[in-house]
Amino acid sequence: MNDTRNGFEKRAQRIKDKIMRTTLDMLRTSDPKRIRIADISKMAKVSQVTIYNYFGSKEALMREVFIGYIDKAIAEFIEFMDGHHTLKEKIEYIIFLEKEAYSDLPPGTIKDLVEEDPELAAYIEKVYREYTAPLVTRIIEEGKASGEISPDMPVENVLAFIQLYMNQYQAILAMAAQTPDREKFLEGMVHMFFYGICGKE
């Protein structure tokens, strides 16, 4: 009996994962508001009834897909921050955390999903409060202790400066795309973050 139940649960999980992967793929190229359960059903090759049985609604499906996407990004973020990287590399990762997401999920899609779903917005706020902010604060404190960040610089100011960069990442990436060497341009922006336009190290 247990083998039968386990087999059923594994098949059910595979179907659910397939639906979620299909939905994520569609979000990479389509406006969430334009995606219908019928479209997901056709692409995933499952019935609409199956999708409703597993998720209940399109909104619940979108939420679960995006939460999975965020959880994966946070796990990768934590792994990078705990790895053997320089402070400069860690700050670059933080500032341009979304540069990969930018090519994966369009920023407008992320914005629409969050604005349309208060539960999703609350989840992202919780993740920032419980994981992202404490980890970034720790990195800044370590930088101050090692002398890589001025010990007189309040953590709040460094966090605010990072936030300024992150708020403009779309514009920065658009500028980088216009240059002959995108990566070199982004490295220059990180260098300016640390040393200003005087370039003093």
Automatic annotation (TrEMBL):
Pfam families noted in UniProt: TetR_N
Top-level lineage group: Bacteria
Record-annotated DNA-binding residue ranges: 36-55
UniProt KW DNA-binding keyword: yes
Protein name (Swiss-Prot/TrEMBL): TetR/AcrR family transcriptional regulator
Entry-linked Gene3D superfamilies: Homeodomain-like, Tetracycline Repressor, domain 2
Keyword DNA-binding: yes
Keywords, ordered alphabetically: DNA-binding
Organism: Paenibacillus haidiansis
Coiled-coil regions listed: none
HTH tetR-type domain boundaries: 13-73
